[in-house]
Specification:
Blueprint lengths: L11 E8 L13 E8 L16 E4 L10 E7 L2 E7 L7 E6 L2 E2 L48 E2 L23 H36 L1
Antiparallel strand pairs: 1-2, 2-3, 4-5, 5-6, 7-8
GO biological process, one term: endoplasmic reticulum to Golgi vesicle-mediated transport
Subcellular location: Membrane
Membrane topology: Single-pass type I membrane protein
Length: 213
């Protein structure tokens, strides 16, 4: 037990949060909101910011007060984590989260917990179905002791650098070379356009002044 949706903070492993209430009044996200977090025990979940600083990715899912069952599919295979939802009773899966480079050790457990603040809420877990995926792994994976690796994600940047994004997608890190090139190109085109417009305006004024002479 603990403060993070009923479970402990600074945990080890993967957490998928189904958050139904925004604590951060400045957020542009639409709730209920599903997000993913991988922790090696060093990260703290910030409820005041709805976990924005440690979120890897997320999406909006209207799972509250439905008259039908809602479904969440979590798949982890060869370092890729995907989360899909079926909340509209259409028997159709929608993509929510897709992250590569996720490293999770074996020997961990599955669990579910919940917590609420001043506003009470109720959700029922009807069932949890678990499947072992049979996939081929590279030869080098056979030499790894997966029970001893640390939970981690190959990020482009630190999660603490996250900024709010209404789409819920993971944001890329600092400006890369091609982004800088595009910005410089746009700036150069803007300068050229301003110069051309200025030259045209100056020429028309000169012609107008000649008429007065």
């Amino acid at each position: 037990p603990g403060p993070v949706f009923g479970s402990k903070d600074n945990f080890h492993g993967l957490a998928i949060f189904l958050d139904t209430y925004p604590n951060d009044e400045a957020t542009e996200r639409v709730f209920p909101y599903i997000s993913a977090m991988v922790n090696n025990g060093s990260l703290t979940y910030d409820h005041s910011k709805d976990g924005r600083w440690t979120e890897l990715a997320g999406c909006t899912a209207d799972l509250r007060n439905q008259n039908h069952d809602t479904f969440l599919a979590i798949r982890y295979s060869r370092g890729r984590l995907t989360v899909m939802t079926d909340v509209e009773d259409k028997n159709e899966w929608k993509n929510c989260i897709d992250i590569a480079g996720v490293q999770l050790p074996t020997g961990y457990f599955f669990g579910a917990s919940a917590g609420t603040g001043d506003l009470s809420d109720n959700h029922d877990i009807i069932s949890m179905k678990l499947f072992q995926l049979m996939v081929e792994h590279p030869a080098e994976d056979e030499t790894i002791d997966w029970t001893k690796i640390e939970p981690s994600v190959s990020l482009l940047k630190s999660p603490k650098d996250n900024v709010d994004d209404p789409t819920g997608n993971f944001r890329s890190g600092p400006l890369t070379g091609w982004k800088v090139f595009l910005l410089l190109l746009c700036a150069l085109l803007g300068i050229i356009v301003c110069a051309v417009v200025g030259a045209v305006v100056f020429q028309k004024r000169q012609e107008r002044n000649k008429r007065f002479y």
